[in-house]
Amino acid sequence: MEGEAVPRDILVDLEEAEISNVREVLFDTTRTLPQALRNTWQGMGNSVAMTHGYTGRQLRFSELLEAVNRLANAFHAEGLRQGQAILVLAHSSLEVYMALFAAWFIGCVTVLASSSWSFAYPFPHSITPKSKLDGEGTISKVLERCKMEFVIADGTSISLVTKLADLTHANFKRIFYTDDPLSIPMMLQSCSGEQLTDIGFPVECHPEDVLFVAFTSATTGEPKPVPVTHFSFLAMTAVSLDCGLYGTDKHLLVWAPPHHIAGITVTTASMLCGARIVVVPERTAHMDPHQIAFICENHKVNCLIGCSDFISGLLQRNLRHCFEGISSVVTTGYSPEQGRLREMREFFSLREEVKIAYGTTETIGPVLISSQAESPPMKAVPLPHFKVRVVNSRNEPVAPGFEGEILIKGTFVASAYWSGTSREGDEPHDDVCQWNNDNFTSDGWFRTGDLGLYNEYGHVTVIGQMQDVIPLDKHRIHCSLLEEFFLEHEAVREVKVVAVPRENGLEVIACIVPDPGTPDAVLLADLYDAIDSSAFPVNRVHRVFLFDDLPRTAWRRPSRRILISQLRTTSL
After folding, report:
1. Per-residue pLDDT averaged across 86-91, rounded?
2. How many Å apart are CA 250 and CA 245, to the nearest integer?
3. Best label site of 95, 228, 274, 306, fewest CB within 10 Å?
């Protein structure tokens, strides 16, 4: 592009297909997160810290500090000690975050899971599965591999906790319920101020101690536990602050639950920098735009951070007046189409571009950030302390403009999945199974499994997951192109296209969730007629299967990996 230049602080190594941001962001390598939180909260005093989206209940920073200290004292009295791992099975609430902060003040490791993670996967009603996927699901694997004696849960998790205890023979010493008046709320009320000086919170930890464990979304395999240390979280927050994602002027909507990496990082980073957050309660799990609009208008939210699907769902003309206070929007994940980005900017009347932030659970926070929404495709640059490389299937550097897998290296990128220890680098416990660490190279790079390309000016474009690309007739076809074709049919509600390995090559299958009302036979006939009358690559779709629902990852996203696994082991 005429006039384009390499951005400041960006270095491009064409020989290695490597883009680096060499600017240094200063952060204290000796502090721990609880110490930093306490210092911030003491300085913020009576400023509002957290608001419940529906009830309007507020916690000021001074109240938050007192409540967390009381709860830490109560947890300690119940037997929690530094270095112990606590399973967290709870949805968003003020009590959940207070419990998390209190556990960190003691020096515990919180393992963030979800009571909504499924135990089984649906199968298409047009085929009969030969063998169902067995196993008890993600949470039971966590308990089997990482022995935990304490649980923080809410009322929706009661039956699940009981079931998990039976399945894995777990012996929970204590279950703390966030919404049971006889549990955490009573602890907050009954702990007197005089008790707080007995132990002295937060306890002294090492910066390399594990703070919490978050799970990947299982797009390339089973969900894996990513350890986040005090140092890595503080470093990530410093870099995110430097690029303007957080700040004391932000009043953020926290819609992702605490078990999602975005939920825990946005909440904690905001509390660390003295920002104000509004917590979306669990009953808005499906993100009803009217409920979100009500929350944003009534609690003066000015910043939205979330995936493009979530933000796109808010763009309803009759709700526009509810979002007049929004001044900043950041979409996460892959870049939405350019028309949608322009629509977001116009809908929210933004003075600045919509930012696009790309990262993974293993990177804790964003790695690439872009605000060049007006010049497709999305062009992003690495944040400080990150390097990005693009390689082919033989792990060789690719030339500018050619697609390859994105690799990431950084100061605080995870180097392995959690081994069950309380400090990074310690030897794993004998009774903890090891996770597959093939995503991490011996020279410190993390293989994202995402497809992308770069140009000679240091701009990186993230295309999507590598499994979303199908090789057809010497062409590389993106599944989204085929999916857009099927979504044009009014009776198609959701679709995922997959390529299933067969003895004679790849079989391309469209897996469709239909809208109710259209007979299956009629819909299938329509779709096959449309395929037969279409040009390449649509005419390379071999079969169409109808599903009641698509198999999903831990975060409820449709999973191509599970679909391919099911269809490979199914009698057709």
Report:
1. 87
2. 9
3. 274
Quickly tell me which residue has 């955490």 as its tokens: 184
Q: In what order do the strands lie in the sheet with 18-21?
A: 10-13, 18-21, 386-391, 404-410, 446-454, 460-465
pLDDT tens track for 1-46: 455 677 889 999 999 999 999 999 988 888 999 999 999 999 999 9
Q: Which of 187, 166, 184 is nearest to 175 (CA)?
A: 184
User: Could you give the 3-state DSSP secondary structure of residue 227?
Assistant: strand
Residues with Cβ within 8 Å of residue 161, at least 6 apart in sequence: 89, 151, 153, 172, 175
- pLDDT band at 120; cut points 50, 70, 90: very low
35 DSSP 8-state letter: H
| Domains of the chain by residue range | 33-381+411-434, 473-571
Question: Quick one: pLDDT at residue 144?
Answer: 66
- Decide: 233 and 268 in contact? Cβ < 8 Å: yes
Phi, psi of 258 (to 5 degrees): -65, -25
CB atoms within 10 A of CB 88: 27
User: Which 8-state DSSP code applies to residue 380?
Assistant: B
Least confident piece of the model among 122-126, 150-154, 205-209: 122-126
Residue 197 pLDDT level (bands cut at 50, 70, 90): very low
Separation of alpha carbons 329 and 352, rounded Å: 9
Return all residues near 522 (Cβ < 8 A) that are at least 6 apart.
Answer: none
Bridge partners (DSSP) listed for residue 402: none
Note the CATH number of domain 33-381+411-434.
3.40.50.12780
Question: And the tokens for 189?
Answer: 């009320």
Give pLDDT, residue 274. 95
User: Dihedral (C-alpha) 141, 146, 149, 151: value to the nearest 10 degrees?
Assistant: -60
Helix (H) or strand (E) holding 379: none
CB 162 within 8 A of CB 170: no
Alpha-carbon Rg for the chain in angstroms: 24
CATH 3.40.50.1000 describes domain 473-571:
no
CA distance 185 to 107: 21
Tell me whether domains 33-381+411-434 and 473-571 share a fold: no
Q: How far is CA 523 from CA 493, 495, 508, 518, in A?
A: 12, 13, 18, 6
Q: Maximum CA pair distance of the chain?
A: 78
User: Beta strands 460-465 and 58-60: pairing type?
Assistant: unpaired
Distance CA 369, CA 230 (A): 23
* Predicted structure pTM score: 0.84
Mean pLDDT of the chain: 83
Question: What residues have CB less than 8 Å from 286, skipping those under 6 apart?
Answer: none
The span from the CA of 458 to the CA of 10, in Å, is 7
- Taking alpha carbons only, the member of 208, 217, 76, 80 closest to residue 148 is 80
Q: How many angstroms separate the first and last alpha carbons of the chain?
A: 50
